Amino acid sequence: MFSKLLGFSNERHFLKWEKVLNFDCKTMQTLKTVKLQTPKQVRIHLNQHEAFPCVAVVKKGDEVKIGQVIAKHPELQVASIHASISGIVVKIDDALLANGTKTKEIVIEANGEDQLDPETLPLLIHQQQDFIEALKTSGIAALNTSDFWRVIEDKETRIDTLLVNATLLEPFVTTPIREVLDHSEDVLTGMRALMKWLEIKKGIIATENHQISGINALNDLLPKESQENMPISLKALPAKGANCSNPLLIQACGEGLSAQHVLVLNVETVGALARYLKTGLPCTHVNISVAGSAVNEAKNVLVPIGTPIKDVIAFCGGYKEEPKKILLGGLLTGEAVLSDHETITKQTTALFALGQKEAESGEETACIRCARCNQACPMKLMPILIDQAVRHHQLDELKQLNVAACTECGSCSFICPANRHLVQTIKLGKSVLQQPPASQNVEKGANLDE
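-> structure tokens emitted (450 positions)
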């Protein structure tokens, strides 16, 4: 069963998903990625990465083309936002994200011409600084985070290994394996570019040992003649949840790797970089997996950023029943949205429209002290104690329990027989600790439920 491959002990949950979906993850992996036709309208919100929203550089009435910069941050090194369709900016409006964050969004009405920005040309890289500038202008979110640049610009700790994560982060979210199967040449090209211009000595592609087709596709392309100068190897790992955090993935790959000297990127990021270098077209589309019992046809889809969920669902044959819950992201870590009016972002990996049976989460009851959440946690944390500390605003206790180390993989909530909302409370605890002390403004011992 796929549940065993993923390392989860509560197999009945996976049997439930597959029974209700009448579909399995292995079948999802075989579906080739198809491109969504240009939507009539996109709404691109300006808070696409981290907590640093961009500012619009276009105004109502402007004509924009695919790949044109429409928003950027005035000060910080945050990825710019580019138009995903060609058309007219009809308005710049207020927007409310699924997590409650207020932001702005740029609404573009398609003109049906699919025109590229005339400045979209293949990039010429002659020196390291050219490559650094290419990273900054790619629009790829993972290449424009504070963590990424902290690693790249750290003069004291030199990166000697590029580790590409091609494992499945969640069941039914099959974009990593589709990237390998559909764009294996791009994956290797992106790795070689990063290794050459950032002077990284070796590269590793981590995948799961049951992904035979992906392993074969990469092995067929690894050029033996260049291995001595730029060694890239495959690491086939047992699927035991080691991919849920960078430190665990590095540890699973072994080979004496030190987290200080390893740059970890996901396989979609590396492939997207290769395509940007080749075409000059920045990040305007994302690959997502679409599934759920309320969807007529499961698909892996290439979607323009800012496309409304309802348009993606229509491309997948529409609803076969009224959705009771819509998730942006995976079944374990996705965020529920209020309606299919919400839009696809740079961070979207999957879209699930859940019917009545899937959406039933069960009533939350008291903890029965079974410790299954502790056993399921790949980070060796104690989720139920963290949950209690959050509910009672015990901030010192949260720090001692190392809540910041949680990867929000969802294993604890997934396995809890009492249906405790562990991931939700842990996310809340992490966000509270990230706020300035004056903003926390809570009384120790206060009850979250009150």
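The chain has four domains: 2-36+283-359, 41-110, 128-279, 372-440.
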